[in-house]
Fold:
Amino acid sequence: MASSSLESLTLKTDVLIIGGGMAGAWAATAAAKAGAAVVLADKGYCGASGVTAAAGPGHWWVPPDPPEARGTAVGNRIAAGLGLGEADWMHRILDQTWRTLPTLSPYYKFGTDDEGRVNYRAVRGPEYMRALRQLVLSCGVTILDQSPVVELLARDDGSVGGARGLRRQQGGWPYQVEAGAVVLAAGGTSFLSHLLGSRTNTGDGYLLAAEAGAEMSGMEFTAAYTIAPAHSTMTRSMAYSFATYYDADGRELDLPFAPDQTQRLARALLRGPVYCSLHRLPDDIKARLHTISPNVPLVFDRWRIDPYRDRFEVTLHNDGTVRGIGGVRVIDVDGATSVPGLFVAGDNASREKVAGAISGGGNVNSAWALSSGLSAGTAAARMARHATGRGARLRPLGQAGLRPRQHAKAVDLATVRAGVRAEMHPYDKNLFRNGPALAASRSSLDALWSELADHAAADNVALREAAALVATARWSVATAIRRTESRGMHRREDYPAPDPNLAVRLLSGGFDRVWVTADPASASARHSELEATL
Structure:
């Protein structure tokens, strides 16, 4: 049902999906197939926005036969996850991905391997997202492109009942969607690293969820740095498995491909420029690179560099929660949060249970986006069928960037954005962490938050993006301070070893005062010890 005028648009639906990337598209499809009326609102254009559309993602793809194969894959991941992963969740996403990807065949032409077998695991991002848009539309979903959501709406009982946003291509006029349930799939954030495809990923979903009362989980696991040619944001790292590195004087550096290569490369970069050659890349990969990851050679082609003969300067970019782990706490396999009516999927949701304390990379993260989208969409449709209070008065939940605590005045957004980058990008602050540096970052980010919360007021997407970026950075720094150990991608120079009592998930939240505590679900045996530590 819809009502509209020249100034505004109001829609009523069963399920609202916020975000039109991989997770959002699969969530919308699942909700519609479950019989729900669905509206999908995307900040950009569903089918082209988000990091998947600019990538060549592979999925965590393990056949069910032989039966021990998945057990081995999950066992390896549990061990690598350093105590924070859960086997049941991993088995679930493996099975769901295996069963679901082939169903996209009517809309997407999967490739084949050298033996003629269909390769479902690896997809071409641009075509994949175009196919998902076609699938979503075929299910009767209403898509609102270029329609960023600025705040969630809640019923009197606290349950989420919709959202309000702005229609960019209609002069910025407002719209409102009333829904029985809402799925947040708005992507993560790279803290403005300009990761390819991340322009719309500013952590909006985290802010929206927290304003509704949801908690974050694993926000300390956001130091996910990825190599790229200097002066570019092409963080597609597969080819660098075969890289050779040199300093400015042409001396080869001892940087073998290994789990600690990123840290060693970062330390080399702190000493000076680092150059790279891909001359060891196997010929069969060279031949396929333009098809597997077409954006990777494009950078070199434009610069007229032959990466297989020439040396080129490299850097590391922080991919934040896009390749990291942290996000909104998921309390059930169906994507439910602690807030009734609110579900999360993809990068908006914490991936600790399926990735542990290390990055899910491309494969686990892609399988998670697909499976969590399906689960959240199905569960949201089920809840919408039984939702009470439909049609009740809805109250807006947005605060910072919309409703200032004090008098409204202009806020320098460039300063705020630069402030976030200054705390969340430098290697010696965020990759190699220590207590004094983290405390200094916390003070800087708290000051930015006070400025936004006290004075920013406008129906302005940029202000809400700034609030989301600062809030997300504050939760990340706060949990990094509290996790006084090194575990996975969280590294403390002053606490270089893991602490067995901290093999638990940390929850965080709050705005004026950020809080951190142990997740009781992961700390039942260690909760008292952890609280003493905190």
About this structure: Confidence is low (pLDDT under 50) at residues 525-534. The radius of gyration is 22 Å. The chain has 16 helices and 19 strands.
